[in-house]
Amino acid sequence: MCSRCNRAKGFGDPSYVLNPSGLDELAERVASPQPIRVCDDAETWDWRAYLTRRNHTHP
Questions:
Q1: What pTM was computed for the model?
Q2: Where on the tree of life does the source sit, at the highest rank (predicted)?
Q3: Quick one: which of 35, 36, 39 has its CA closest to 53?
Q4: CB within 8 Å of 6: residues ≥ 6 apart
Q5: pLDDT, tens digit (0-9, with 9 covering 90-100), for 16-45
Q6: Residues spanned by the domain of 35
Q7: Domain for residue 13, yes or no?
């Protein structure tokens, strides 16, 4: 992963630092046998398309 994306990971996100309850949600997603969010489904989620859209909307 590039350094920009690495810095954007969830644990570096200020919302997790300022709101630790976000880690509870993350733990629930990790422990869930079924995907909770679209991005939790490795079989169907197109992460390359997501990054392309994100890179076009964030300077």
A1: 0.48
A2: Bacteria
A3: 39
A4: 12
A5: 667 767 778 888 988 999 999 888 898 898
A6: 7-57
A7: yes
